[in-house]
Every structure is written in C-alpha cells, then in structure tokens.
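Q: Could you predict the 3D structure of PAS domain-containing protein?
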Amino acid sequence: METTAILSALNAEQKTQLENKTDASVIVANMEGHVVACNPGAGKLFSYTRNEMIGTHVRVFHPQQNFAKILPDLFRTAMTTGKYDNVITLIDKHGKEFLAHIVVTSIKNEKNDIVGLMGVTTHAYAKKEPSIIQKWLTALRAPFFAAVIIPVFLGTAIAFYQTNVFLFWPFALTTIAMIFIHAGANLANDYYDHKSGNDELNQNPTPFSGGSRVIQDGIIPAKHIRYAFLFCLAVGALMGVYLNTLHEGNIILYIGLLGVGIGVFYSAPPFAASYRKLGELFVAVGFGPLIVVGAHYVQTGMLNSLPLLASIPMGILIMLVLFLNQFPDYEADKKALKRNWVNTLGKKTSVKILGIFLLFTFLFTAWGIISQTFPPLTAMVFLTIPHAIITYDIVKKNYDKILELIPGNAEMITLNFLYGVLFTLGFVLQGALS
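A: Sure. Here are the predicted structure tokens for PAS domain-containing protein:
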C-alpha cells in the first residue's frame, strides 16, 4: 500500500527516470530509508538483485564513514530543499568502495507532503571541493537563522498591530544584528563543544544535531572558529548599541547584553548552561521573549504584556527543536557529562514531555485568542496542528533510533517555522484591517 502511494506520487520526470533510465542507478525509498523500487541500473551499480534490494535500508549502499554526516545530510537536504546533489563514496555488495555522483530528490504527493526520496546515481571520478563560502555557511549553520528572524518579524508585527506604524531601517538593522549574534552563538557552541570533547565523542551526528562538524572534519581550524564567533558577536553588539540610541533609557542595551550572554554561555565555561540542565531554558528565553520584546521595543519604545505573552509559544517551539535534537546526541552527551533534559529524564519520559509542551503551546494560543489577548486572525496557527501530530508520532515510534528520527527533527523545525510565519501574519493582517 505504501509502495503504491509513493510510486503514484512520482512526478513525470521521476517516472521517466525510474522506467526508462538505463545509464544510471535509480532507487526509490520511503521516508524511513527502505527501498521500495529500483531500476535494472541499480543492480548493475551495486551488484544486488532486485529482490535483494527491495525492502533493504539505503544504508547498505554507504560505507560506515558516511553514517555520521553524509547520509543524514543527504536526507536533510533532500527533504528541506527538494534536492541533494553531490559526489560521495558508496559501496557495493562485495564491499568495494567507489566514487559516485548522486542526485536525490524528494517525492511529494498531491498535498505537497514528502512521502519518499528518489536517488539517481552514476560513477564519478572526482569529489567536489566545497568553496570557502560553502565551508563558512556550513559552520554558521545558516539555514537555522530563521530561528531568530521569525521572532524579530513577530515582535515587529505586534508593534504594527498596536500602532499601525512600521519603521523599516530599525527593523532591518535588528534583523541583521540578530543574525550576527545567532551566527556568533552557533560558532561559539561549536568551539566550546569541541573544547569539551563533546562533538568528538559524538559518532552519530545528524544534520540537526552534533554541531556543524567543520572542526571535526578538518574543514576549518578551531582557532578560526573562535575568531569568527568573537567577530560576529562584536558586530551584532555594535548594531545593538546603535539601536539602543533610538529610544531613551537602555532597555535595548540590557536585552542585548542578556542575549549575547545567553548565546555565549549556553556552551562556554564557567556557566556552560547546556551542561547544567539549563540549556533548554536559555534557548526558550533567548529565542522567545528577548527577541520578540526587543524587536517590539525597537519599533515602539514601549514595554507591554502582549509581545511577552506572544513570545511564549515561539520560545517553547524553538526550545522543542533543541530538545528533540538531543535524542540522537544522547550517548555522546552522557559521556561528555552534558546534562540536558533528555539524558536526565531518559528518552521515554522525554517523549511524553514533548507531547505535553506541544499540547500546551496550542492550548495557550487558544486561550490567547479566546481571551482576546491575541487577534482573531492568529487562529491561522492551528493549521500547523498536523505537523505537531506528525512530529510526536515519529518521535514516539523512533525515539531510540538515529536515521529514522530525522524526519521528526525536520517536522519539528517545519512546525516552528510555519507557526511563527502564520502567527506573525495574523498580527500583520489584523493590524492592516483595523
């Protein structure tokens, strides 16, 4: 039944490749990574019969060194961007490694949900060397900048809803400052997790956990990461100092100092909050109330309860992204004495905690709308409930697995992103209509 649904969701190009391509291996896999269909070229490339391939996990085509980064990165990139295109090392049935050019595309059904992946693979003779820009984008974990951009948008949207005024340049500068501070925090996290040995101990990193791996893979030296995080934090702080001059008092200065402190001391000693069961709280506060209230204050020069209350769901959801990323890091974190919630409570209990927080997020939002604290149009966020259900279902079934949990990580990030976008849009539209 699942195979039929996946194959029926193939687009015209994917169907043509599966049915007619003779000069390459074409493999179709479900979201758990098990092969559901392949062409004769797959057997020629990997030396398996069709019957041997159907039902097996795609990890059999990868040497063990791919398990830590390349295979998870393949899944994540194909699911988030729609396409993974790279030259990597693969392995055939007889254990012979070879370079291969692989293009993996996502398979989407009529509801635009990803139901599977298709890989088209040929022999290759040289690996692609990443550019300097690509190396640093990896180190910065640029795709995750949405975690700070959306709260800035939300705080600005609430200000517009309340005042019907939008100040573009302060908004733009706030956004850029937060990107620099987030970049600095990401780099600092990599640097101090390297210094503690945590990332080196992690033999099962995924695209959502285990750090960027640029230090561990020898891509960028640790000392360069340290210089970069100091530079990013300094640039973000200077922008914050300017924003502080836009209004009387030092509210932005205090918020900025607290935000930078949270970003650095999440991993850095002597505080090292992520090692002392406080990392989740740091993330919830830093990516929720601090940014939302700060962005609102930049626009209005006022403090009131609405941005603070509206920041609570955002803080919880981004905290749950981190919380869920702790599952695959469980063993490495315990060895490095990194005491977070998951390795303190255990994975089974943590699944229940995930469900409680997801339920609370939507109940709190419903209370906000019913009490007229949040405008009616913010009810659009309830369109994201299916993503919450899917996330919980995947985690409940796969909490003790690595690769199988990756779709759950992706769903949690999608939930956080869509909730934030729809919540922000609700305030903007309500402000425009009032």
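Q: Anything worth pointing out?
A: The first helix runs from residue 2 to 8.
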